[in-house]
Specification:
Number of strands: 12
Helix content: 40-55%
Bound molecules: nicotinamide-adenine-dinucleotide, 2'deoxy-thymidine-5'-diphospho-alpha-D-glucose
Radius of gyration: 20 Å
CATH class of one domain: Alpha Beta
CATH architecture of one domain: 3-Layer(aba) Sandwich
Largest sheet: 7 strands, parallel
């Protein structure tokens, strides 16, 4: 058998990372090393089905640790890196911005330095996974394209924008072969229940209030996580070096409409009376600096590489709800201990 292509995935125990790792491990031509610190958001339960596979290795560690990162690069002679490790929750970035600078900026820099110092041969690629939040906030019309100017508004998006800039700067200055993609909101299995959709599923299940920031009029463009992972694999394999690709669901929802839709779906799934879960909706104090609308134009990715989302939102959401209802232990584990401290601290002060 030909030698496998070695790829380093960072943050592979998180929500999107675990789906990316699974897709690459399933493809026998790859050998995948997953470097993850296992923060509150990282969970090896997400990767039970790849554990023990001959073409997979997990390393617990911090992307901000230069010695560790240099050693991993030296040990493995990677063909490429897919960098997903990050602090990813906007609300946490508002209360603890420095953590976001450390991981998202310094951590990315540490990886870039290792790649720059150790990658002398051609044919490698540093793929940085980023977000549409770097573009700021849209009004009622328009879509983010790859040409939209950066205008990050939250500490999270500022840290991601900064890391995008450093990746491009390493390409321009040192010739590092890079690719960046900027994706809209993901949803699906293994999503940590601090984010809107899994938080709502957990609260509806437990008949707890459903906290909606402001008037619930903010709009997000939702994409099923497996479709994002498929796009990442395609871009990693066929994307143009130095290129940027926007990834999105063409699927805009106002938060309040999404919540109502999810309530009605879960009433059916849980055998509750129609309208029962909607009574849990509670409008709370708005997020500081809350971006009004995100929406992605993914034409370039579609035209160049033929990607489009495979699932309709209604199907993806039903799959997601089913997964959470079938994986009660996963949900119980991640919502015990520290999660409740976070939850109490964040939501106890959020009355209007
Ligand atoms: P997540 O919070 O679920 O997972 C992050 C992972 O990174 C966890 O496994 C965590 O343990 C790991 N990690 C954090 N700090 C680390 C460090 N210092 N060293 C090593 N590992 C560390 O995040 P996610 O939602 O899966 O997002 C993954 C990436 O995709 C992020 O870069 C995020 O900005 C980007 N992204 C997310 C979305 C979304 O909707 N979730 C959309 C677009 C882009
Ligand atoms: O757009 C991509 C981004 O999407 C990613 O880069 C981020 O990592 C990811 O967390 C996500 O950011 P958002 O801030 O859009 O996602 P979140 O699930 O936190 O919130 C979605 C919307 O729901 C947003 O308008 C805020 C609102 N919201 C959120 C929570 C947690 C509520 O109304 N109530 C809540 O309790």
């Amino acid at each position: 058998m030909k030698e496998r292509r070695k790829v380093l995935v960072t943050g592979g125990a998180g929500f999107i990372g675990s789906h990316v790792v699974r897709q690459f491990v399933r493809d026998e031509k790859y050998y995948v090393v997953n470097l993850d610190k296992l923060t509150y958001a990282g969970n090896l339960e997400n990767l039970k089905d790849v554990e023990g596979k001959a073409n997979y290795k997990f390393v617990k560690g911090d992307i901000c640790d230069p010695d560790l990162v240099q050693k991993i690069f030296a040990d493995h002679d990677f063909d490429g890196v897919i960098h997903l490790a990050a602090e990813s929750h906007v609300d946490r970035s508002i209360s603890e911005p420095l953590e976001f600078v450390k991981t998202n900026v310094l951590g990315t820099m540490t990886l870039l330095e290792a790649a720059k110092n150790l990658w002398s041969q051609e044919g490698r690629r540093f793929y940085h996974v980023s977000t549409d939040e770097v573009y700021g906030s849209l009004g009622e019309d328009g879509l983010f394209t790859e040409k939209t100017s950066y205008d990050p508004k939250s500490p999270y998006s500022a840290s991601k924008a900064s890391s995008d800039h450093f990746v491009r700067a390493y390409g321009n200055t040192y010739g590092l072969p890079f690719i960046i993609s900027n994706c809209s909101n993901n949803y699906g299995p293994n999503h940590f229940p601090e984010k809107l959709i899994p938080l709502l599923i957990n609260n509806i299940k437990n008949e707890r209030p459903l906290p909606i920031y402001g008037k619930g009029e903010n709009v997000r463009d939702w994409l099923f996580v497996e479709d994002h992972a498929t796009a990442i694999k395609l871009i990693y394999e066929k994307g143009r070096i130095g290129g940027t690709y926007n990834i999105g669901g063409l699927n805009e929802w106002r938060n309040i409409d999404l919540v109502e839709f999810l309530c009605d779906l879960m009433d059916i799934k849980l055998g509750r009376e129609k309208g029962a879960s909607r009574t849990l909706i509670t409008f709370v104090k708005d997020r500081a600096g809350h971006d009004m609308r995100y929406a992605i134009d993914a034409t370039k990715l579609n035209k160049e590489l033929g990607w489009s989302p495979s699932l309709k939102f209604e199907e993806g959401l039903e799959k997601t709800v089913d997964w959470y209802l079938e994986n009660e232990e996963w949900l119980k584990d991640v919502t015990s201990g520290e999660y409740m401290n976070y939850y109490e601290k964040h939501y106890s002060h959020s009355d209007k």
